[in-house]
Amino acid sequence: MNGEDVYAGEYSLEANRIASNFDELDGISEEDLDSFTRSSLIFKKLFSQKADEIGFGISEDKINDLIRQDRNFYSNDKFDVNIFRGLLSRLGMTTDDFRKLTESNYNASELINFLRSTSVSYTHLRAHETREDLGC
Known about the structure:
The protein is mainly α. The protein is built from five helices and two strands, in the order H-H-H-E-E-H-H.
């Protein structure tokens, strides 16, 4: 995707995430799930690539922290490396693949949050300018 690989495991994780949002409703068709998943992956990849271009970054320690904080890898309230490795094995991903995915998703999320906060500030500024233009 735009020169960047999408792993089968990455697709699977995203499809499961999206499907879980529809479980409460009447479910989702396979075609719609595939379409939503592809769109979501494209969206995330493009935002991640843009974040890289403008200098967003994440340290190795932060990547480790994000992985360790993922409750999906916990057993008895402790990070379980065997659960982590088992999931990666089922997804056909290496630890490095998963670290890159974690970094990519984090950077995309950070850029989206930055743009949202900037948008709100810009909208607030424009509203203030409009009130001044109207003499309020």
